Amino acid sequence: xxxxxxIIENKDKVKDGLAKKxxxxxxxxxxxxxxxxxxxxxxxxxxxxxxxxxxxxxIKSASAEERPAIIAKSKQLGEDLKAEQDKLAAEQEKFNNIxxxxxxxxxxxxxxxxxxxxxxxxxxxxxxxxxxxxPRDHVELMEMNDWSEMERIxxxxxxxxxxxxxxxxxxxxxxxxxxxDKLAANxxxxxxxxxxxxxxxLYGMGYLPFASDEIYxxxxxxxxxxxxxxxxxxxxxxxxxxxxxxxxxxYAGFSPCFRREAGAAGKDTxxxxxxxxxMKTEQFVICKNDIAESEKWHQKLLAISEEVLQDLELPYxxxxxxxxxxxxxxxxxxxxxxxxxxxxxxxxxHSCSNITDWQARxxxxxxxxxxxxxxxxxxxxxxxxxxxxxxxxxxxENHQQADGSIRIPEKLxxxxxxxxxxxxxxx
RNA sequence: GGAGAGUUGGCAGAGUGGUAAUGCAGCGGAUUGCUAAUCCGUCAUCGUGAAUAGCGAUGCACAGGUUCGAGUCCUGUACUCUCCGCCA
Length: 427
What we know:
The chain is α+β, with helices and mostly antiparallel strands. The protein has 2 domains: about 5-100, Helix Hairpins, CATH 1.10.287; about 115-420, 2-Layer Sandwich (BirA Bifunctional Protein, domain 2). It is about 40% helix and about 20% strand. The protein is built from 12 helices and 16 strands. The strands form 4 sheets. It has an 8-stranded mixed β-sheet with strand order 1-9-10-11-14-8-7-2. It has a 3-stranded antiparallel β-sheet with strand order 3-5-4. A 3-stranded mixed β-sheet has the order 6-12-13, with no helix packed on it. A hairpin with a 4-residue loop joins β10 (about 330-340) and β11 (about 345-355). α8 (about 200-205) crosses α9. It is elongated. The mean pLDDT is about 95. The structure holds one RNA strand.
C-alpha cells in the first residue's frame, strides 16, 4: 500500500513507477479526485456528528418540556448522519479497492524492463562443473540410487508431488539445518510457523488480490494454505506498535509451503523443480523506516543466501530483477539462480526483496521512533534461506560422480554424519 | 465437539447508559542542579489548517442492533483461558 498523501503530492513520480512496473490500468487522477470527494463527505458527516453530540449531551440538563423537541431533532440528525455515512462508506470501499491494487514503486536503481528477459545479471560466482562423462539429470540420479518414489507418489497424491527417501531425504533436512544454523549465527530467531492462514494475512502480504490463482483454499474452514513462511511472519506483528529498540526483528522461518502452480501448466513437470508442496527456510526482517537501513539489510540478506550457495558449492548468478518482472509488493529484488548442468542454464533458488513500508501499511505494523517519538510504518524484507526439493536439483547434478554417487561439500558434511559421498555405489 | 469465563491505549489497570480514571514507558516543555529527580503537557486514526497550533470526528476484539446518547444493554463472529471429550 502507498500513502495517499504521497501519491497526491508526487503524481508524476507515481505514474512513472506504475508504468515501469507495467500497471497501466490505474488512474491516479481519478484516485486523487475520489480521495477529495471522500474528504468532503468526511467533513460534512463530521459536522452532523458534532451537532448530534451536542444535542445528546444537552438532554441531561434540559427540562422535561424541552426534551421531546431535542430528542426529535437529534433523531432526525441521526438519520441524516446515517445517510451521509452510507455514502461515505461506499466511496471509501471504492477507494480501498484501488489502493489494495496499487503496487509498490520500484527503486530508481532497479533496471527498467517489461519482463524477465530484461533482468540484469550482476555477477556470476563459482566455476561450472566439467564432467568427463555424460552427466545425468537429477531424476535419473534419484532412480539409480533408489532415492525417490516419484511415479508411485503421483498415483497417490497427484502430479507435482514428490517423495524422496534414504540419504537424499536426510540431505534435504540437513541442508535446512545448515541454513538455520547460519541464520541463527547471524542473529535470526528460528521460528516454525503454520502453513494454514486466514484471509487477512494474504492481503497483508500482497498475495491477494494479486495472485489468487496460486493459492490453495480450504472452503469448509475459510483458511488458505501458505505459499511461504513470509505470509505468516509478515502478519505475526500486525497491528502492533513496536519499540524501536526491538528493531531489527530477524526471523528464520521454517514451514511447508503450498503452491497451485496454476500459471505454470506444462512447465517443469519432470522431477523436483516445481512441486505443489515443498519446504522452505525463509529470512524475514522488520527494520526502521529508513531506505538506507532497509537497503543495508537487503544486501545483508543477499550476502547470506550467496554464502549458502557457496557452502553448498553451487555455481550461481545474481540477477537484479527488472521493474516489469518484480512482484507488486517489491521495491527492489534480486534473484539467485544456481547452475543446472543438464538444463544448461541457471535456475532460481532464492528471491531477495526489499518491500519498504508497502506491506507494513497493509498489516498496520508500526514502531515508535526514538528520535522524535512518532509512530512510523516499519520496513519489511524477505529472502529465501533455502527451498527444497528444488535446491536438490542443482545440488545433485553439480556434485554427481561418474558412478552416480553425489559428493557432499565440506560445510555440509557435519550435517551428514561426516559422509563425503552418498549413493548406492559408495563403499 | 460440549460447558463456563474473558478480550479497554506501547504496557499494566479502573470504569454496570451521559465527554475513556490512574500508574509505568516513550516524546515535548519547564524547573532544580547532577551517576538524576520533580512538575506540566503529550501519547491511536482521520478531517480542517502553513502547522508537529487550534477546532472537530472516530477509537474500549470484530460486525450488527436497541437508545436522544453504548466501553457499559441485546445478537452474531473471531480469539484467549479453564474444565470435559477426542487426539500426534
